[in-house]
Design brief:
The longest helix is centred in the N-terminal third of the chain and has 17 residues. The protein folds into two domains: 245 residues, 2-Layer Sandwich (BirA Bifunctional Protein, domain 2); 85 residues, 3-Layer(aba) Sandwich (Rossmann fold), CATH 3.40.50. The protein is built from 16 helices and 16 strands. β15 and β16 form a beta hairpin. It is an alpha+beta fold. The strands form three sheets. Strands 1-5-6-11-10-9-7-8 form an eight-stranded mixed beta sheet, with helices on both faces. A five-stranded mixed beta sheet has the order 13-12-14-15-16, with helices on both faces. It binds one RNA strand through α3, β6, β10, β11 and α12.
RNA sequence: GUGGCCAUAGUUCAGUUGGUUAGAACGCCAGGUUGUGGCCCUGGAGGUCGUGGGUUCAAGUCCCACUGGCCACCCCA
């Protein structure tokens, strides 16, 4: 039995890597414009880091993490998301002491053991950003705008932005009690999941996709109406700023995210082009997280976005991905005696900074030409004994088929002339 | 974790009510006279029909199990 990749993991094959690289380069350039610096944290951490930050009762911690004991008996978990690691690194390295506001981003794999389906993998990839150190609505708005700027840069229009405020440690507890009271009245009619959540996380009940639940909770009080003055002001500031950026959004009072650390702003970007896994990106503010993880109380905001889902949308909407790179020149050997020279010359050209390729299979000239064509080489230089004696050869343009004689000791020069 | 659908060449698929050497397209390889690609033509390689059982004179074709894939629930990126 041949080996297969682990269920829910995928190879990005050589024919597709340029698409990933393109997205990554767009992400990096957008983030760079917003002055966020890359941070690279380990792919695995102590299990407790995630259970404490994301929340013991969440699905992610409760049933989706890849957790194991290493050989020394430590509890290790493959990161299911990026924020916890970033905050851990922020605290551990005392970044707060260096700058009042730390703006970082990451790109990389995350791991969650869910049942794979369209747009959902066990190892998937996210890009995300965190701004740590400011309680101001400006940062919330900037982070949201930056996420949107990535999609905008890629020409994506088929998405919608939903925002909400989930309150803070002052106002949310009051709301929770009130909501639980109301939910208990109709508890028997709710779905099993929702019944369980009344105690664990009542706000998630309102976010249930069960139609019956939706109907029953239609008139439930929303967090909106219970926000304290600070949260309420903050939320309206965020909205005002988004509007000033020209960003359209809808307020969804039922929006709750699956990670418990959010306070105040929560947002989600969904695509109309995807199946049931339609979230492109999500994020929010987490003012209590740093303290929860043992650091000083430090406000923060961030978001994470799925690369596979972005790729799916771009492919579906026919995004014009550029071709992958092709050689500037293919050096073909017209006869066997010339082969020693063609391979050596190819190496020299590469050393001179030119993308050059040659035949490594000792094939016929016809086969070499086919190969050059398949590789979309810009030029082919056919060299045999005759050319070596004469010191010049025909440089053929594969686009228009024309060729011109060039001296064999100045190939690089000839190529830089023509390629401009 | 629960359900539904699917499983034939590298890829996408076709294989009639179970019946002799399992097909196509694309891709790959080689040719189409003397050292030059793309188009076209010719030829070729490539499949233990996911695996294991069973029914039958006979199974890619029917039944069962397993494995894998896809999709949905759930959850989220």
């Amino acid at each position: 039995m041949a080996f297969r990749s682990i269920k829910g993991t995928k190879d990005v094959l050589p024919a597709d890597t340029h698409r990933w690289q393109h997205i990554e380069s767009v992400v990096r350039s957008v983030f760079q414009r917003f002055n966020y610096k890359e941070i690279r944290t380990p792919l695995f951490e102590q299990t407790a880091l995630f259970s404490r930050s994301i929340g013991e009762l969440t699905d992610i911690v409760g049933k989706e993490m890849y957790t194991f004991e290493d050989r020394s008996g430590d509890r290790i978990t493959l990161r299911p998301e990026g924020t916890a690691s970033v905050i851990r690194a922020f605290i551990q390295n005392n970044l707060a002491e260096q700058l009042p506001l730390t703006k970082v981003y990451y790109i990389g794999p995350m791991f969650r053991q869910e049942r794979p389906q369209a747009g959902r993998l066990r190892q998937f990839h996210q890009f995300g950003a965190e701004a740590i150190g400011s309680p101001c609505a400006e940062v919330d708005a900037e982070v949201i705008a930056m996420a949107i700027e990535v999609y905008r840069t890629l020409g994506l229009r088929q998405y919608s932005l939903k925002i909400n405020s989930v309150g803070c440690e002052k106002c949310r507890p009051l709301y929770k009690v009130k909501l639980q009271e109301e939910l208990r009245k109709i508890a028997p009619q709710l779905s099993a999941d929702s019944q369980r959540r009344i105690d664990e996380n009542p706000m998630r009940v309102l976010d249930s996709k069960d139609e019956q639940d939706q109907k029953l909770t239609a008139d439930m009080p929303l967090i909106n109406q219970f926000l304290c003055e600070e949260c309420s002001l903050h939320f309206s500031d965020v909205q005002r700023m988004l509007e000033s950026f020209g960003i359209t959004y809808t307020v969804n009072g039922r929006l709750v995210r699956g990670l418990d650390y959010y306070t105040k702003t929560a947002f989600e970007l969904t695509s109309t082009e995807l199946g049931s896994q339609d979230a492109l990106a999500g994020g929010g503010r987490y003012d209590l997280l740093a303290k929860e993880l043992g650091g000083k109380q430090t406000p923060g905001v961030g978001f994470a976005a799925g690369i596979e889902r972005l790729l799916m949308v771009l492919e579906k909407t026919g995004y014009p991905f550029a071709d992958s790179d092709h050689p500037q020149v293919f050096i073909a050997a017209a006869d066997d005696p010339a082969r020693a020279w063609t391979i050596a010359e190819t190496m020299r050209l590469r050393g001179a900074g030119i993308a050059a390729e040659t035949d490594l299979l000792r094939r016929s000239l016809k086969a070499q030409m086919r190969e050059a064509d398949r590789q979309r080489a810009l030029h082919v230089l056919v060299v045999g004994e005759r050319e070596l004696v004469e010191g010049k050869a025909a440089l053929k343009s594969m686009q228009d088929g024309t060729s011109r004689m060039i001296p064999l000791d100045a190939i690089a020069l000839a190529l830089t002339d023509t390629s401009t």
